[in-house]
Amino acid sequence: MPEHKILIIEDSPTMRQLICFALKRLPGVRIVEASDGVDGLKKLSADKFDLILTDINMPIMDGLKLVSLVRNDANYKDTPIVMITTEGAQEDRERAIALGANDYITKPIQAGRILDMAKAMLKKP
Amino acid sequence: MSTEEEKAVSSRAEEFMQVFKKGAEFTQELLKENERLRYQVIQLQEKLRVDPEPVLSSTEDIQLRERIAELEREKEEILNRIRQVEKENQDFAARYVEIETENNNLANLYIASYQLHSTLDFKEVLQIIIEIIINLIGAEEFAILLLDEKTSELTAVATEGVSREEIPAVRYGKGIIGTVAKTGENYFIDDISTYKRDFLSPMVCIPLKIKDHVIGVIVIYALLLQKKSFAELDYELFTLLAGHSATAIFSSKLYSESERKLSTIQGFIDLLIK
Fold it and tell me: What structural domains does chain A harbor?
């Protein structure tokens, strides 16, 4: 697998560590972490990423706002975005997909689920 | 022609007739043989048409039949081996899934443990416990209660989904929460689906223990919408939380107390020096 850059935007250090732990099992990935939406946007403008994983409930800027901003950026209009959240209701999922997210993972999180999702997203043309 | 000459001619004619008769008989025999052979050819052609197997000698036939039997045996052995390999593959695949699950579970446990011991700040420790309960267990409403040994009361020091004021103080040894604190035994409600929130009767109550000494409890009142039941990993996480959270909370409290004492002593020393 060629090198893929993945950005994790998540305010919880526990979750960031778990997601990193899962994604590091993929060969040739480079992982960058951001602790909120604003930090995430800064990192997105400084580099080009192949996959974005973002939490929804975060301080300063939440994940939904971030997704709508990222989708307006020509560099990221086709980049897969996966939302990770505690909100398991169907309307929350639909809202995230309508804003431009490609997938939606609910907590509690398992490393295996994150890994499978990343593999599937990075395979897509 | 004399009589003798006539006799000689007659004798020759007779000889000729005999030769001719023999020739006729021989020709008849040849025709019969020809007819018999033609009949055999037709029969063989018919046999070949019906059964195209080449006609072989009995020795070749036996050898070939033995060879076929041998190949059949080999084929059966190969098929058995394939079936065995397929079964082994299925076993390996099942084992792989099992190891992957175990690996993922260990990842969650490792990260929970790593995070719990990553700080000596009491508030941060409580925040990490909350994160673990939300993100790795999937609880929505819960509280962390610590035991005040002077008053023998358990009071909430951190909550999620409910306010701290809503959680009543509980007497050590009284009710479900007090009993868990006293006995050090985990408590799980039998049927989560029928549970109705009651602050004195949680769906889960986990003692925070340092060896046999209970310093507090974690009580859970509601799970996330998508979390319908507890998995095997959740019970392992509860066990981990019971031990590691307790030591992390105890260490951070000791550390902050020693920091406070240090700053007081430093203040006295500064005063004495001045």
Answer: 4-123 (3.40.50.2300)
